[in-house]
Amino acid sequence: MTRLFPSPASPLELAVIIPVLNEADNLAPLIERIDAALDGIVWEALIVDDNSPDGTASLARLMARSDPRVRIVQRIGRRGLSSAVIEGMLASAAPVLAVIDGDLQHDETLLPKLYWAVAEQGNDLAVGTRYQEGGSTGDWDASRERMSRFATALSRRLLKAEMSDPMSGFFAVRRDVVEAAMPHLSSIGFKILMDLVASSPTRLKIAELPYTFRNRLHGTSKFDARVAQEFAILLLEKMFGRFLPVRFLMFAMVGSLGLVVHLAVLGGGIAATLPFQFAQSLAVAVAMTGNFFLNNSLTFRDMRLRGVSLWRGLASFYAVGLVGAIGNVGVGAVVYRLEGIWWLAGLAGVAVGVVWNYAASSVVTWRVKR
Fold first, then answer.
1. Distance CA 208, CA 127 (A)
2. Which whole-number Å values give the CA distances from 101 to 16, 78, 105, 115, in the listed order?
3. Residues 106, 128 contacting (CB under 8 angstroms)
4. Which of 103, 133, 231, 244 stands the most exposed, by the fewest C-beta atoms within 10 Å?
């Protein structure tokens, strides 16, 4: 039988997944260092770029034209390190998958050891750790060091395996381990390793190898309040996700804050001797507006509305909320007539309103992709 494609001299052994955002200055030096570190291993690099405005994707394409081991996955309209890593893994056929940041802060000379720990030593996963003897967080300031250790201690309570650095973003893993965990992955935020271990249906055999975290040479750090927020969301997902979607829980939490705002505005209006109908209408408008902007920033942060779409979304959120309020009152009235218990009727109405508002907002306002 005639072959359509030539058989490679050596089969692919390792894919290095590099999620990036605005790392144009670091990309070429990183690939050069990976090439030197992985001498003797057949590898490819999957650069997953979230449509960086600094031209990272264009640079990656130029590199790929001269080096077929370099590949680029450019994502439009999607953000997030975890989801980028997953897409990169799915785009490769390599039996072992490594993840390294694109900012040169991970020690690429550890890559061969991570690979061999998985490929030859029988481990499911090999992790570069900053918190074992021989490892270090480098020149981090005291506040970032404390935050990291607190998050590490918190996340270890949720895992099915003992790890000194579950917050690490530097590791290698067997493909079959990823495939087994894939249906349960949250794809939320920046901590794909913790998500992977927590989502595995079996207890993993893990090797940890120490390294020293480097200082960034070019660009700006992605560590900010959003990272902490997404870490908290991932924890919620792993604790409660099998009972209720975390997005729904966040929507309900924002609604609870909205209730407090509603009562505060209503009380203030009454105290200012405004007519009840006017004070109530003002409270509804303020609470719904606050709920919309909080949900846009938190609950639906991955599909955040901006510009003209923001104001269109606000109008649709008002419309959805009006229908929800009608359902709230209607169901509450029915339950009150049947049971005669005011607080039960109130809770029933609120429950229906929250479920409707979430479902309708997901379809009409933010158009959640399923």
1. 5
2. 10, 18, 7, 16
3. yes
4. 133
Residues 214-249: pLDDT tens digits? Answer: 876 665 555 544 555 556 666 666 565 556 677 777
pTM recorded for the entire structure: 0.67
- Residue 242: what are its φ and ψ, rounded to 5°? -75, -10
What is the spatial distance between Cα 216 and Cα 139, in angstroms, rounded to a whole number?
10
The count of other CB atoms within 10 Å of the CB of residue 157 is 9
Give the helix/strand (H/E) hosting 259. Answer: helix 246-271
Interval 150-205: pLDDT, tens: 666 665 666 656 778 877 889 999 999 999 999 888 766 557 888 888 888 888 99
Taking alpha carbons only, the member of 242, 238, 347, 301 closest to residue 79 is 301
Q: Are 107 and 138 in contact (CB under 8 A)?
A: no
Inter-CA distances, 255 with 288, 350, 360, Å: 9, 10, 15
**E strand or H helix at 247:** helix 246-271
Residue type, 312: R
Residue 37 tokens read as 């570190």
In this structure, of 12-21, 117-126, 281-290, the range with the lowest mean pLDDT score is 281-290
Structure tokens, 164: 């000194």
**Strand arrangement, sheet containing 125-129:** 70-74, 43-49, 14-20, 96-99, 171-174, 125-129, 206-210
| Residue of 130, 119, 18, 120 whose CA lies nearest to 74 | 18
Most confident of 249-253, 276-280, 305-309: 305-309
Tally of CA atoms within 13 A in the half-sphere of 341 that contains its CB: 5
Measured between alpha carbons, how far is 269 from 311 in angstroms, rounded to an integer?
Answer: 26
The two tokens of residue 111 are 């890559």
Please tell me the total number of residues recorded for the chain in this structure.
Answer: 370
Yes or no: say if 358 and 317 are a contact pair by the CB < 8 Å rule.
Answer: no
- Between CA 254 and CA 86 the distance in angstroms is 29
Neighbouring residues of 35: CB distance < 8 A, sequence distance ≥ 6: none
